[in-house]
């Protein structure tokens, strides 16, 4: 009879995929279930990964694939609504001096890279499957799945996102809250002169920006006040984003001409979530967006999720008992850093919503990025 510890990971996004690979590498038996039959491999426009996210991707063994697929750069530009360049700031290398400061990547490409890593690590993967019930005792968790199958695990890791069903089932009542802003996103061809993220504050929207995601691609985004999504016909998404984007100058006219397919445009509210007190109940523990989420104003959502996977794996494979003390140690190690990111991300939004013109934005960014340069 095997004494190998068994883990169920619920959710096949960045944090779930990452923790699966890391735990398998340590010799644990891991089952991963994902509700979506397509493993979310085609959804999304782009993602900005800063150095601390790249550090975890290197730990996963996928950095070379990520580097080859994305677009690395080291600075941030700020432009006026007419496109005039106001200033350029060098990005801090939060992953260390041997990694780029920032890398843009098509989100589906990152997901495919992580999927390949999960497949290669030998985990058992079941798509189109959810956990219907979780019954805990002192030694583990019995799970009944949506297909009628059952399983017994030493640990369940809930990586099922901001609307986590698992979080609610184990009695954690926290739910995400909108911060008052929403974002339009779309992929587009990359003009040759786009070699970094450029942001415009003001104009017809709060923020307009773009990030190179590859040799020939970028993703563009426009941030406005939240609207009732029920009043926006999805067939008009391209028209709505183009209406805002075409009022910006510089490289925007080259981007705007490609905002034509409503199926390529995504509209999402900015949400905030930070579970306080602990991120576990018994042998079920939360990671990633199930425990915290924030507006993308610092481009740290995926990074915080990936760091969760790394830190939790370190603790689970340290030889310590899998008990409340260990899971509380995980929370206490993560919460100061995550809180810093969530609160700073929300603060940047609130200053814009309130029209604060003398806010110490550079100071807030500098303090936050300095924290992120430290190891998690």
* Series of H and E elements: EHEEHHEEEEHEEEEEHEEEEHHEEEEHHH
In angstroms, what separates the terminal alpha carbons?
37 Å
Q: Give the overall form.
A: globular
CATH topology label of the largest domain: FAD/NAD(P)-binding domain
Helical content stands at 25-40%
Relevant CATH superfamily of the largest domain: FAD/NAD(P)-binding domain
Biggest β-sheet: strands ordered side by side in the sheet:
6-5-14-15-16-13-17-20
Strand content bin = 25-35%
Number of domains: 2
Q: What structural class is derived from the secondary structure elements? A: alpha+beta
Number of helices: 10
Overall CATH class of the largest domain? Alpha Beta
Q: Give the CATH architecture of the largest domain.
A: 3-Layer(bba) Sandwich
The low-confidence parts are none
CA-based gyration radius: 21 Å
Query: How is the biggest beta sheet arranged?
Result: 8 strands, mixed
The number of E-state strands comes to 20
Whole-number mean pLDDT? 97
């Amino acid at each position: 009879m095997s004494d190998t510890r068994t883990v169920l990971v619920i959710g096949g996004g960045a944090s779930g995929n990452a923790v699966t690979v890391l735990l398998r590498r340590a010799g644990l038996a891991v089952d991963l279930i994902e509700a979506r039959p397509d493993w979310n491999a085609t959804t999304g426009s782009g993602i900005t990964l800063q150095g601390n996210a790249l550090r975890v991707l290197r730990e996963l063994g996928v950095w070379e694939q990520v580097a080859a697929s994305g677009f690395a750069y080291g600075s941030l530009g700020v432009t006026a609504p007419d496109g005039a360049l106001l200033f350029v700031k060098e990005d801090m290398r939060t992953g260390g001096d041997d990694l780029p400061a920032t890398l843009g990547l098509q989100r589906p490409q990152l997901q495919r890279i992580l999927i390949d890593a999960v497949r290669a690590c030998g985990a058992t993967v079941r798509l189109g499957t959810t956990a219907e019930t979780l019954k805990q005792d002192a030694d583990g968790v019995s799970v009944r799945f949506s297909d009628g199958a059952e399983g017994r695990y030493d640990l369940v890791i809930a990586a099922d996102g901001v609307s986590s069903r698992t979080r609610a089932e184990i009695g954690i009542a926290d739910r995400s809250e909108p911060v008052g802003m929403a974002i339009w996103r779309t992929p587009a061809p990359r003009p040759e002169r786009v070699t970094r993220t450029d942001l415009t504050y003001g104009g017809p929207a709060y923020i307009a920006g773009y990030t190179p995601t590859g040799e020939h691609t970028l993703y563009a985004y426009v941030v406005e006040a939240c609207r009732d999504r029920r009043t926006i016909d999805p067939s008009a998404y391209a028209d709505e984003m183009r209406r805002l984007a075409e009022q910006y100058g510089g490289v925007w006219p080259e981007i705007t001409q490609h905002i034509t397919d409503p199926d390529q445009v995504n509209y999402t509210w900015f949400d905030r979530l930070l579970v306080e007190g602990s991120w576990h109940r018994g042998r079920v523990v939360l990671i990633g967006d199930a425990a915290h989420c924030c507006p993308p104003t610092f481009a740290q959502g995926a990074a915080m999720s990936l760091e969760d996977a790394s830190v939790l794996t370190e603790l689970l494979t340290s030889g310590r008992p899998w008990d409340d003390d260990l899971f509380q140690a995980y929370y206490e190690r993560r919460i100061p850093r995550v809180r810093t990111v969530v609160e700073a991300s929300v603060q940047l939004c609130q200053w814009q919503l309130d029209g604060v013109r003398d806010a110490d934005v550079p100071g807030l960014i500098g303090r936050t990025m300095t924290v992120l340069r430290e190891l998690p």
